[in-house]
Amino acid sequence: MTMQSLQQPTVFSPDANSGRQLRDAFGKFATGVTLVTAPSTDGPIAIVANSFSSVSLNPALVLWSVDRGARRFPYFEAADHYAIHVLAAEQNDVCKRAARDAHILNDHPYQLNADGVPLIDHCLARFECRRVAAHDAGDHVIIVGQVQRTQMRDGQPLTFFGGDFGSVSS
Predict the structure, then answer these.
(1) Can you tell me the distance from the alpha carbon of 167 to that of 163, in angstroms, rounded to the nearest whole number?
(2) Is 73 part of any domain?
(3) Domain tally for the chain?
(4) What local confidence, expressed as pLDDT, does residue 19 receive?
């Protein structure tokens, strides 16, 4: 590839008028996809998040962030316990349904752990967490959890890149 064939970058300063461009720039970072579940007074609740990251091995800590403007925000703000499910490529349909419906688990099989958190099967990894911190971060809240139990299996991950779902092979 020659330098002449490279597309010129789009350069901008993030402001109130460049939200779509900033979202597109964030979308250039390929991520895995998670489904976060929690109990609530309205039944089991779920939200799709790609803002998941490991934080610490000792103690075992993870984080994810939730948009304050999301209709599901109050459920996760109130949840002391939750589970983060790293989705497998074959769980694309579950992911898309959960993005539209916070109460997807009303029509999807799950079991409850000892803390009453709904857990789904067939994910690549699952982290059952107790919230230990929440940090204000602009229009989001970063939720930090201590992992109490985990499980994992082999498989291909569900990924998100450029506004679309996909997968990668090892």
Answers:
(1) 13
(2) yes
(3) 1
(4) 79
Q: Which residues touch 61 (CB under 8 Å, ≥6 apart)?
A: 54, 55, 132, 144, 145, 146, 147
Neighbours of 115 (CB within 10 A): 17
Q: Supply the pLDDT for residue 3.
A: 59
**Residue 58 burial by Cβ neighbours in a 10 Å radius (0-12, 13-18, 19+):** exposed
Task: Quote the pTM value.
Answer: 0.89
Q: Say how many C-beta atoms besides its own lie within 10 A of residue 143's C-beta.
A: 24
Q: Report the alpha-carbon distance of residue 67 to residue 81 in Å, rounded.
A: 18
Question: Domain holding 111: CATH number?
Answer: 2.30.110.10
Can you name the residues that pair with 107 across neighbouring β-strands? none
Express each pLDDT in 107-159 by its tens digit. Answer: 999 999 999 999 999 999 999 999 999 999 999 999 999 999 999 999 999 99
Asked if the structure places residue 21 within a domain, the reply is no
Under 8 Å between Cβ of 64 and 36: yes
User: Is-contact 47 74, C-beta < 8 A?
Assistant: no
Three-state DSSP state, 20: helix
Amino acid at 62: V
Q: Which residue range is the domain that position 119 belongs to?
A: 30-160
